[in-house]
Amino acid sequence: MEFDVVIVGGGPAGLSAAIRLRQLAIQHGEELTVCVLEKGSEVGAHIMSGAVIEPRALNELIPDWQAKGAPLNTPAGEDRFLFLTETRAYKLPTPPQMHNHGNYIVSLGNVCRWLAEQAAELEVDIYPGFAAAEVLYHEDGSVKGVATGDMGRTHDGEEGPNFAPGMELHARQTLFGEGCRGSLTKTLFQRFNLRDGVDPQVFGIGIKELWEIQPSLHRRGSITHTTGWPMDMKTYGGSWTYHLEDNLVSIGFVVGLDYQNPYLSPFEEMQRFKSHPEIRKQFEGARRLSYGARAISAGGFQSIPKLTFPGGLLMGDCAGFLNVPKIKGTHTAMKSGMTAAEAVFDALKGGQPHGQEVKSYAERLSKTWMWDELHRVRNIKPSFHWGLPAAMAYSAIDTYLFRGKAPWTLRHRPDHLQLKPAAECQPINYPKPDGVLTFDRLSSVFLSNTNHEEDQPCHLTLRDANVPVAVNLARYAGPEQRYCPAGVYEFVQEGSESRLQINAQNCVHCKTCDIKDPSQNINWVTPEGGGGPNYPNM
Amino acid sequence: MKILVAVKRAIDYNVKARPKSDGSAVDLANVKMSMNPFDEIAVEEAIRIQEAGGATETIAVSVGPKQCQETLRTAMAMGVDRGILVETDVETQPLAVAKLLAAVIKQEQPGLVILGKQAIDDDSNQTGQMLAALLGWPQGTFAAKVTIDGERLKVAREIDGGIQTVDLRMPAVVTADLRLNEPRYVKLPNIMKAKKKPLDTLTPEGLGIDITPRLTVVKVAEPPARKGGVKVPDVEALIDKLRNEAKVI
Ligand SMILES: Cc1cc2nc3c(=O)[nH]c(=O)nc-3n(C[C@H](O)[C@H](O)[C@H](O)COP(=O)(O)OP(=O)(O)OC[C@H]3O[C@@H](n4cnc5c(N)ncnc54)[C@H](O)[C@@H]3O)c2cc1C
Ligand code: SF4
Asked: What is the distance in angstroms between the Cα of B16 and the nearest Cα belonging to chain A?
């Protein structure tokens, strides 16, 4: 099938690009067909975010969003920043990046559902349930489009009775908005050497739960961030608690994936964090509604790759446009999508051919507020290599004294190289879940509504099938059992042998294994379209 | 011969249904909705019959809010020729739906009507049977296999302990069970084509049917949580527990 523009991923970046492209086309009376592919069963099904969002980009994209019923219903209110010890909470001054006046607490999934409706009204063709599985190239090496994955292959790769082959979608420009650690983006990095000369991307994993709490304990609009316990001083991590509408509370914990102790389990850190006296008191008589996890890019400015290549470009979190100290990437994802759309529209106007490299995208981006914003905060995250107290001191100096304009840039190291051998580390004794406030993995994954057709090739591919036991288990005590928030990886003992069992149906597409596997042996590829979580209100 | 299929927009089978906190209904806010899986099987069967030359036209009908258009588009992307939406925001109960379908059927005059045996949201398992009664047509429910033979229809039905085959005169009503077929994957180009297929909208008022709900939902609650198991020391203790506590032997 032929389109003018194919967009991979129906997140804030992809949808904003689609909307902007069609707005411009209508405004200029140009014919321009735009198609969005989304691997989730519907737009929003795979979106998992905090989220307090800045409406700046949305104001620019759809100025009358309020009249059009955008689900931004809860203005940010009271803002707290706490330092936790095991039993106490100390109020810290809220760093300026964390001030949220004028922002909104939202379900980003619902915002994306709404954006998709706006896009559909502008005649964007949106295809949820179809994963872009492969990038297609012209003979001259430029990107030709993407192919969707086959449907109905059996686990050994044979064509099953309902087999439906993937489709090729060709476009003059292909825009990638796959979000953090995009599976096709990864192949583009290699093919076009897009990461040459920039810092490695570094990541965190965010684990989130949605709760409905007692009305008497609910303070709509309240925002709390914490740092400190249960992380040790060397590990980057912290929490959010946002009170939305309808007595809902979004609570989550982010752990930097540069953690060193292979015994660490982000999932269990999240569970244990909830049991802190300051946190648990909100959850008297509450019920948990949903659960999810997603990796987040934390490299910031110095990790931004080259953004364009012949025939396509990167936008949103797959390019790492995230303001790390703010933990906000929605407004930047949207702004990058809009800027990409403007550059692409100008480049394609009047029937220009395929295969161009739209270099003006990067130039335009560097002139936006977003670029300036990312540049200012570039030194905060890497300073956490020095441990929490030093990092907080540094962040304060960087922020207050230099206002982000310090004449140096701190560098990143790749996450998968950070693990220490298990023998050098202390096992961590996590408390047992109580089934009321704290839970185990399986009952949690259940609430993500994730599912994959069982009889299909495993989408968690191993480059070398021996590495899990020979390296990961032997040297690192099998860290994938702990960092995977969905219990996908299990080492099972058979006689004297161990074997890695991969429960791929449980995967929630967070991409952590693809990032943290110490020898980069795990390669996450798209499963059959429509598979994965079905997050409601996340 | 025309075939008419009824399709319901229901909570997606992957989603864990959850009562609202006031127990008034299942919480459907921003929850993924899809075509009821048994209706998908009904659609597949209709298309297969048409592909095998047994039908001239296939029509999908849905009753419910505007969003049911998506459900109809899915049916059309699978291969159904056109769609009819009976649009209403009133809660739809089996008898009302059966009456609406009967009214549409009087207009369309199909030779065969296929429905899912039940919808996975309320599990009523009534609409097909009520429809057959309202029309005075023969019915083959829980179909595992459907064979058309001239004016007659053989339906192999899933019943306790086996298969019962009934021989019906058409026009007839069939409800689809799980093993009737495995629905196809929808293909991208067919989704595009489905956007251009005709979709008519009717209303209960236009069809002259009163759909005021007759059933009242008293309460929607989660099933009681399962109690944790216990380890028994020996066979005697097990038998004692089965006999005196569980009272199952
Ligand atoms: C735990 C956590 C908390 C956060 N909190 C906040 C916050 O409070 N405020 C804020 O502003 N930001 C927050 N963010 C960041 C924000 O969510 C992201 O920056 C933003 O979602 C990025 O948008 P995107 O469109 O680039 O990618 P995504 O939102 O990740 O969307 C990508 C979409 O593409 C789809 N996709 C991916 N690959 C393919 C493929 N091959 N084929 C088809 N479809 C594909 C995915 O399913 C997904 O729907 C948070 C992120 C996390 C993880
Ligand atoms: S298998 Fe990988 S991508 Fe899937 S949930 Fe586990 S860590 Fe995340």
From this structure: 6
Residues in contact with ligand 2 (CB, 6 Å cut-off)? A 460, 484-486, 488, 507-513, 524
CATH number assigned to the domain comprising residue A144: 3.50.50.60
CATH code at A502? 3.30.70.20
In this structure, which residue's CA is closest to atom 4 in ligand 2?
Answer: A507
| Final residue of a structural domain among A269, A297, A325 | A297
A478 phi/psi in degrees, rounded to 5:
65, 65
Tokens describing residue A164: 């439906």
The owner of tokens 């709760």 is: A211
Q: Are residues A371 and A345 in the same domain?
A: yes
**Cis peptide bond upstream of A422, omega within 30:** no
Q: Across residues B190-196, what is the average pLDDT?
A: 95
Same domain, residue pair A400 and A437: no
Given the CA of residue A43, which atom of ligand 1 is nearest to it?
A: 49
Query: To probe the interface with A, which of B32, B74, B226 has the most A CB atoms within 10 Å?
Result: B32
User: In angstroms, what is the C-alpha Rg of chain B?
Assistant: 21
Query: Does ipTM exceed 0.90?
Result: no
Say whether both A51 and A133 belong to one domain: yes
**pLDDT mean for each 10 residues of chain A (538 residues):** 97 98 97 97 97 97 98 95 93 80 97 98 97 97 97 94 94 98 98 96 96 97 94 88 97 95 97 97 96 94 96 97 89 98 96 93 96 86 64 60 62 90 96 96 96 95 96 96 98 93 97 96 96 95
Respond yes or no: is residue A484 known to be catalytic. yes
Chain B closest-CA separation from residue A446 CA (Å)? 8
Q: How far apart are CA A531 and CA B5, in angstroms?
A: 27
Residues A23, A141, single domain; the answer is yes
Phi, psi of A172 (to 5 degrees): -75, -35
- Pick the residue from chain B with its C-alpha nearest to A289: B18
CB A56 within 8 A of CB A104: no
Catalytic residue selected from A330, A336, A399, A526: A330
DSSP state of A532: B
Non-local (6+) Cβ contacts of A270 within 8 A are A207, A209, A239, A252, A253
The Å distance, Cα A294 to ligand 2 centre, comes to 9
- Please report which ligand is nearest the Cα atom of A513: 2
How far, CA to CA in Å, does A535 sit from each of A49, A182, B17, B54, B181? 11, 19, 12, 41, 29
Mark whether A320 and A396 lie in a shared domain: no
Known catalytic residue at A49:
yes
CB contact under 8 A, A446 and B16: yes
DSSP annotation string for A456-484: S--SEEESSTTHIIIIIIHHHS-THHHH-
**Cα–Cα distance between A229 and A347 in angstroms, integer?**
51
